[in-house]
């Protein structure tokens, strides 16, 4: 049976907004394409106070005196007792994690308060306070008044703070708490560093009282001679009769459409003879078109590529043609040393290494990465697998846990559905099988499909059925995904010489991606190919795995684990790991290991 999925390159309109159960205050649905709007950066040096026992917050809940840190209070008389002062506190660069900016906080999990003062002069527009990500729980005050609350460490959120700002000096205070909990997403145990802080950009976004909140422009056939261009949009208000003009100059498109009673434009056909000559986005030719959306004089700009993604039997089709996904997994960690990656330069360095490997695809694991990374990959012609942190043993029966996961999925799709290179939404990684898990994940899969039926859905499964040297993949989630993906570590978590003997059976007529394989090596450590932690061991492991993978029926891509060594508190072997997962093909200092060149050679033949 053939199942074709057409790609909507610009954001899928959300006609029904889902508000997170954890949100309060002035939070509004995430505004799409913040990079194409009028913004004021609040990045830079922020004062911070470490609050191990949450003294600055207990006061807020129990006794509303000036002592609460969120009030940024100052003594008015010599005898006034206020036991904190942000202005005398040290500063930290934002965006950034506290673990690598203050040696005292390297292992710290708890509360840190941040304060930033800035000048603002009202312009008559509305102001949204936009956080690209805060790990993990954020409570925000503006000029001492609550702006809102957000849970989740890797997706953006914004609050309408128009009524909280004043003409002149303003102050934002954020209580950040990165403690782990069983009911969180991810849960208490995960194999990466729990970097705390305001880890991505902060900005004020100015919008008109009525503005385009979300939009979608897409084609519905990979044959451009038959293709139709469609346009949808959603305003922030349910206002009928608003006129939105869509301009794509290179395609000679300029068409004005009118919103319905819901403030929406639902799937309008856009006509132009130039559409039949458009150039589709692909890794070889990552063509994007300048697009303008105009509402009452305000112009929202984007650069958009057009392409389709589909499956046919065990093939993945990009623009109607089979493609092998030459991939690598990546964590969002700085290229040189540890610390959360948070800039376009960070992303560019990591993605350049992926290109040097011969990659046309990256798995951005195990959470939505910075928007810079997705956009840089799109510009460079690299396809993307994007994932939410439903990782290992999630609290499957907790309704709040599901609501958290669904909101992170929603926010990931809302932010990145604009991007041509994102072809896979991943809903989970290595989750133990159970009825409760199947119910949880199938709901997420349906949610993703309902929000965006223009991309493929997958998840990293576990192999649970093995007999001697025969592995059979069995997972009830096979019916909910478009691509069968699984992790395997033959040669690392079982005998080092098992790979040549292995046989694989995947009983589904769907494409297969091996989403993880690999093993560890410390750069510069050499020895026999059977000596763990040596580069020769990792090199041989890759050679044997590649030979094994080539025998898998329907193999359509791989994303070995992992591009670069990354920090993990689970990796404690002194002198070897030193709190780094050493499975990277590149060291934490940017040095390429021998296995890097094995994978590069294999991809060159693909």
Helical coverage, percent range: 10-25%
Query: Which blocks of ≥5 consecutive residues have pLDDT under 50?
Result: 1-25
First-residue to last-residue Cα separation: 26 Å
Structural class: alpha+beta
| Largest sheet properties | 8 strands, parallel, barrel
Radius of gyration equals: 25 Å
Biggest sheet: strand arrangement: 24-25-26-27-28-31-33-34
Beta content:
25-35%
- Helical stretch count? 7
Please identify the oligomeric state.
single chain
Q: How many strand elements?
A: 36
> Which geometry do the CA atoms define?
globular
Report mean pLDDT, rounded to a whole number.
91
Please give a handful of descriptors for the protein shown.
disordered N terminus, alpha+beta, 31% strand, 606 residues
């Amino acid at each position: 049976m053939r199942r074709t999925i057409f790609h909507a390159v610009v954001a899928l309109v959300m006609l029904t907004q889902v508000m997170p159960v954890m949100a309060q205050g002035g939070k509004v649905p995430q505004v799409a394409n913040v990079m194409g709007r009028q913004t004021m950066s609040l990045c830079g040096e922020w004062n911070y106070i470490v609050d191990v026992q949450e003294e600055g917050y207990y006061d807020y809940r129990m006794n509303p005196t000036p002592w609460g840190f969120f009030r940024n209070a100052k003594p008015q008389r010599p005898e006034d007792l206020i036991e904190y002062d942000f202005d005398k506190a040290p500063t930290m660069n934002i965006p950034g994690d506290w673990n690598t900016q203050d040696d005292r906080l390297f292992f710290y999990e708890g509360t840190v308060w941040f304060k930033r003062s800035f000048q603002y002069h009202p312009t008559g527009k509305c102001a949204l306070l936009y956080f690209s990500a805060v790990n993990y729980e954020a409570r925000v005050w503006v000029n001492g008044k609550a702006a809102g609350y957000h849970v989740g460490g890797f997706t953006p959120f914004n609050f309408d703070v128009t009524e909280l700002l004043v003409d002149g000096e303003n102050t934002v205070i954020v209580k950040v708490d990165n403690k782990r909990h069983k009911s969180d997403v991810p849960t208490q145990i995960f194999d990466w560093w729990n970097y705390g802080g305001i880890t991505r950009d902060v900005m004020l976004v100015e919008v008109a009282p009525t503005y385009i909140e979300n939009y979608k422009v897409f084609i519905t056939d990979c044959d451009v001679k038959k293709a139709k261009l469609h346009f949808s949009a959603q305003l922030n208000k349910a206002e009928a009769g608003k006129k939105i003009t869509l301009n794509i100059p290179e395609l000679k498109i300029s068409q004005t459409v009118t919103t319905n009673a819901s403030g929406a434009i639902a799937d309008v056909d856009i006509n132009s003879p130039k559409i039949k000559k458009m150039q589709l986005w692909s890794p070889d030719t990552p063509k994007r078109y300048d697009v303008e959306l105009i509402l009452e004089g305000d112009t929202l700009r984007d650069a958009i590529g057009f392409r389709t993604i589909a499956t046919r039997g065990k093939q993945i089709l990009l623009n109607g043609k089979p493609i092998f996904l030459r991939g690598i997994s990546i964590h969002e960690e700085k290229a040189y040393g540890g610390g959360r990656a948070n800039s376009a330069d960070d992303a560019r360095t990591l993605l350049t290494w992926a290109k040097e490997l011969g990659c046309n695809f990256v798995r951005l694991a195990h959470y939505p990465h910075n928007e810079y990374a997705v956009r840089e990959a799109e510009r460079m012609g690299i396809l993307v697998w994007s994932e939410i942190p439903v990782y290992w043993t999630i609290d499957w029966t907790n309704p709040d846990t599901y609501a958290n996961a669904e909101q992170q999925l929603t926010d990931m799709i809302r932010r990145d559905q604009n991007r041509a290179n994102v072809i896979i939404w991943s809903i989970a990684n290595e989750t133990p099988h159970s009825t409760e898990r199947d119910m949880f994940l199938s709901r997420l899969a349906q949610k993703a499909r309902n929000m965006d039926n223009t991309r493929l859905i997958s998840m990293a499964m576990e192999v649970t059925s093995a007999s001697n040297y025969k592995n059979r993949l069995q997972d009830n989630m096979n019916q909910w995904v478009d691509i069968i993906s699984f992790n395997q570590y033959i040669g690392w978590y079982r005998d080092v010489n098992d790979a040549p003997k292995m046989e694989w059976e995947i009983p589904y007529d769907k494409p297969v991606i091996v989403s993880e394989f690999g093993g560890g090596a410390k750069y510069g450590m050499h020895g026999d190919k059977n000596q763990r932690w040596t580069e020769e061991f990792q090199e041989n492991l890759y050679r044997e795995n590649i030979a094994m993978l080539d025998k898998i029926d329907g193999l359509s891509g791989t994303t070995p684990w992992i591009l670069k060594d990354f920090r993990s508190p689970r990796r404690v072997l002194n002198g070897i790991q030193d709190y780094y997962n050493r499975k990277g093909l590149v060291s934490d200092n940017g040095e390429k290991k021998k296995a890097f060149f094995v994978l590069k050679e294999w991809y060159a033949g693909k």
